[in-house]
Structure formats: C-alpha cells, structure tokens
Amino acid sequence: MVTLASTITIVETKANPKKRSLEDGNQPAPKWRIRLGDRAKGIRNPIREIMDTIAGKENPSKTLVSLAQGDPTCYPHLRPSVEMVSAVSHAVNSGQNNGYQPSQGNARCRTAVAAFFNTPGRPTLQAKDVFMTLGCSEALSHCIAALAAPGSNLLLPRPGFPLYQVLCDYHGVEVRYYDLLPDKGWQCNIGDIAKLVDDNTCGLLINNPSNPCGTVFPREHLAEVLNAAAELGLPVIADEVYAGMSFSRPFVSCAEASPRVPILSVCALSKRWLAPGWRIGWITVHDADGAFADAGVPETLLKLCQVSLGPSAPLQAAVPEILTSAPNGCPWHTRVLEALEASAKCCVQRCKAIPGLEVAAEPEGSMYLMVRLQPGVLDINTDDVRFAGKLLEEESVAVLPGQCFCAPGFFRVVFAAPVEVLDEAWDRIEVFCRRHAVK
Ligand SMILES: *Cc1c(COP(=O)(O)O)cnc(C)c1O
Question: Any stretches that span the bilayer, and where are they (predicted)?
C-alpha cells in the first residue's frame, strides 16, 4: 500500500510472480493506480446486509419456500400475457429495432405511455412529458438526482422500499422519514410531514400501492397528503410501480387526487405487467402551472437519460402493443388480480389463526403483507431478524425482517405465490410459532 496523501491510498496489485519472471526478468511489480470512487464504495444495500446474516441457513431436510423475493414471476402462475410476449418477439424479428433510440425514448413508445397514463383533471399528457428508463429503479434515480440541489433533503415513507435510501445516499440527499401508521391502515402521518420540512426539503416521496405494506390509499387520504404537500410547496415523487395492482380498493394516482401539485410519477412493466426482467420503466411528468418547466426539471431529466441512453430498442418498440393489448380489466389482468386476491386472503386468514402473529392492516394491493410480532407471546419476542433467521433455519421458509424496511417488530410476506405454496409455508410458520410460544 502506497500512501500519497493522508486521505488517498493506492492498492498495489501484484502480478503473478511466475509469469513476470518469464516476461521481464527481475523488474519490480508494477504499481497499478487502482482506486475506488467514494460514492460507489458508499453504496449500502440494507436488505443485503441484514440477509447476509441469515442467508444460506435453511434446514437441509426441508425444501425452501421463499416468501421473500419481490419478483412476481417467482412462481409460474403469474406470467406476462401471450400478446405481450408476441409484441416483443415481433419487435425483435422485424429487424427494425436494432439502432439507438432518442435518449428520452422512442416517440411512439412515449406517445403510448402518455395515452395510458393521461389523467382526468390534469393537462393532457403528451409524449414530451414521458421519459423512458431502465425499470422503475432508474426512473426513481433520475427523479431524485434531478431534484438533488446541494444540501437538500427528501421525505421518505417508513416503512418503505430500501432503494429510496440507497439512491438518496448516492445522490447526496439527506433522508427524513415520515411514518406510515400501522393501526390506521398504514396511512401517512401527515403531522410528521409538516414537522420535517425545512427550506432545503426538495420533495415528498409517496409510494402507493405500498411495498412493503400492501395498502392502497383511499382517494380522500391521498388528497389530504397532497394538500399538505401543496401548502408546503413540495413537489411529489410518486412511486406508482404497483399502479393497477389493487383488488380491494380502486387505485387512485397522485396526479388524479390533486390537480395542483407538481408530480413526477414513476412506473414500469415490472409488477403490474409481470415483467421485471424486461427492464422497462418510465417517468411521467404531471406539471402544474408549469412549475417543473420553469425550474428546468424536464431538461434535467433529459440530461440524466443521456447517461444510459435508455432501455432496449425492441422492448420500447413493443410498449404500444403491450399497453393496448393488456388494459385494466382485460381477462389476463383480471386473472392476475384474482390470483393475488386469493393469495392475500389465504395469508390473512392463516396469519390471524397463529398465536403471536397479527396482520397489521389487510393487504389491498401490490403483493405484500406486513405481519406484526406481538410482544411477549413468542420466545423470540419481537426480534424480527431473529424470527426470520430461526424460521429459515428450522422450517426453510424465507421472509424478510421488518428492519429491511425500517420497521422493526414486523416481517414482510410476499403473497405472489399460489395458494398451495402459501398454505405449505403457513403450515410451517404455524408449527414454528407454536414451538416457540412462551411456556
Ligand atoms: C420493484 C419496485 C421498484 C423497482 O422496479 P424495477 O422496475 O424492477 O426497477 C420500485 N419501487 C418499488 C416500490 C418496488 O417494489
């Protein structure tokens, strides 16, 4: 290790000594100037850190049942529609989609996204308001990067999707959490929002339907939250990747719930269209009175899109056919929602019958359920990391501890599995909880 200055170090990479002696006699090993970027080194994925402590520890005598992975395609009953797959296959086979696309995205594709997400009560959404991205993750990254003025902070939901924090750290944005209230159907603590805001607050992130809570906000609640944002002058980043994935309550978008607030809505083919591996997402800019335009937000989003040059051309070319062939309420979409609803119901019913566990709020959409560990009932008490670790070790059932989402004392269940698989998992969870009941 060579120290150049107190803060800079160069790691010496030694070449294979045998090889070197053949090539260049007795010359000293070269000192490669390999250093690491601070921002890259600083990336910390909270799920990985917590899961690495329990990963690979399943009971070898029982097959693993995973209710941990947020991938709707983990089980074969949930698949993209035949029309979606043939649209992609046609786009590849046509030979017309091999070239670079405009950074903001293919124009036909953006026109189709604008038509699909056009919102009553808002100015007509146009192709210029749509930015194509590599999944919803890159869409979120662009939105946060665009608003990340020096010294700024962003309000995030707690519990919430861990990527938000990772992206804020990466873009140098301070994180401030507002709480979602488990005993009020995981609705936002609106009082928190006003308390957290200062002159450097650059936005409010709203995730609806929710990962990890599985809730779908009623229109009135969403309107109240957006009113608070309007009073505080806060633009909103709306993570609506589960748009159209609700079964007990109609999904209402942020843009629909408030005509006044400037909203960057992000979505993707990953969840509602069951194709996370296709890596197609987008931002729709719902401006209000030109607030985003005046601040230069669309130009900045375009610059960010120029970094990766956007998602693959054949996939973008297939988007118009994908969106028109699988509208809300088509038979394929209805079957998907029915399967999710049956799975959610199974989880709620089984969970309610197990001592020590409590459903915080019944899921209404997305594909997640948060389960509360009741204090004093299990010998594990409310230690969610220990609960998830022991459950895996003894019963080979994987769930994510609430700490992955800043929600200690809970665990998250993914209910994208078919009912037969869920029943097997809950049988084992039940046996586990009875075995660990305080005597
Ligand atoms: C899955 C997920 C994403 C990321 O979606 P990709 O399109 O796969 O990048 C973003 N937000 C939430 C809440 C998610 O659950």
Answer: none
pLDDT reported for residue 24: 57
CB-CB neighbours of 254 under 10 Å? 26
Distance between CA atoms of residues 321 and 232, nearest Å: 40
Residue 232 lies in a domain: yes
Residue 18 has pLDDT above 60, yes or no: no
Tell me how far the alpha carbon of residue 19 lies from the centroid of ligand 1, in angstroms: 47
Give the residue, out of 216, 241, 273, with the most ligand 1 atoms within 8 A of its beta carbon, to mutate for a pocket test: 241
Collapsing DSSP states into helix, strand and coil, what is residue 124?
coil
> Of 325, 347, 365, which residue sits at a domain end?
325
The residue with tokens 């009741």 is 374
234 to 123, 238, 282, 296: CA distances (angstroms): 20, 12, 22, 16
Query: Could you count the other beta carbons within 10 Å of the beta carbon of residue 431?
Result: 13
Ligand 1: centre distance to CA 262 (Å): 22
**Residue at a domain's end among 307, 325, 343:** 325
Q: Which residue has the higher pLDDT, 26 or 199?
A: 199
User: Could you read off the pLDDT of 248-271 as tens digits, one per residue?
Assistant: 999 999 999 999 999 999 999 999
Is residue 11 situated within a structural domain?
no
